[in-house]
Amino acid sequence: MYEKPLPVVDADTRPFWEAARRHRFLIQHCLSCERYVFYPRALCPHCHSDRLEWREASGEGTIYSFTVSRRPAGPAFEDDVPYVVAIVELEEGPRMMSNVVVDDVGEVRIGEQVRVLFEDVTDEISLPKFELKRSER
């Protein structure tokens, strides 16, 4: 049983989470200003249009910033420390916060290239996380 907090799935985020469950990485794209949007929402944060559609994203990006958490963010995370929380600048432009999954947290650097991977945590939820692109799968 998964003990950590789960994302809240609502009408705006449902397409994102349904795609993630299938290990597909979708983000919104605004048809008015032609910019990509993340986190999922009803209106474009750039031009306030409601003309948003879901598009397959590359799943690749660059570490914009990160921190190594050496103290758990609650009892459910005790077995995970140390872990990396990063802001990833997606190839399409938006930034998102996620984890970078590595064996050695000392390997992580700002500017490092990453790619998405999915952690299946329940039958309904797969969490997008990232790994260093230089890592062999």
Describe this protein's structure.
The protein is mostly beta strands. The chain has a single domain, classed as OB fold (Dihydrolipoamide Acetyltransferase, E2P) (Beta Barrel), CATH 2.40.50. Helices cover 6% and strands 37% of the residues. The protein contains 1 helix and 8 strands; from the N terminus they run H-E-E-E-E-E-E-E-E. The strands form 2 sheets. Strands 6-5-4-7-8 form a 5-stranded antiparallel sheet. A hairpin with a 4-residue loop joins strand 5 and strand 6 (95-100). The radius of gyration is 15 Å and the shape is globular. The protein starts with 13 loop residues before the first helix and ends in a 5-residue tail after the last strand. 17% of the residues are buried.
Structure in a nutshell:
The protein is mostly beta strands. Strands 6-5-4-7-8 form a 5-stranded antiparallel β-sheet.
Topology overview:
Layout: H1 14-21, E1 26-30, E2 36-37, E3 52-56, E4 60-69, E5 83-90, E6 95-100, E7 113-120, E8 126-132
Antiparallel strand pairs: 1-2, 1-3, 4-5, 4-7, 5-6, 7-8
Features:
globular, 3-stranded antiparallel beta sheet, 1 helix, OB fold (Dihydrolipoamide Acetyltransferase, E2P), 137 residues, mainly beta, 5-stranded antiparallel beta sheet, 6% helix
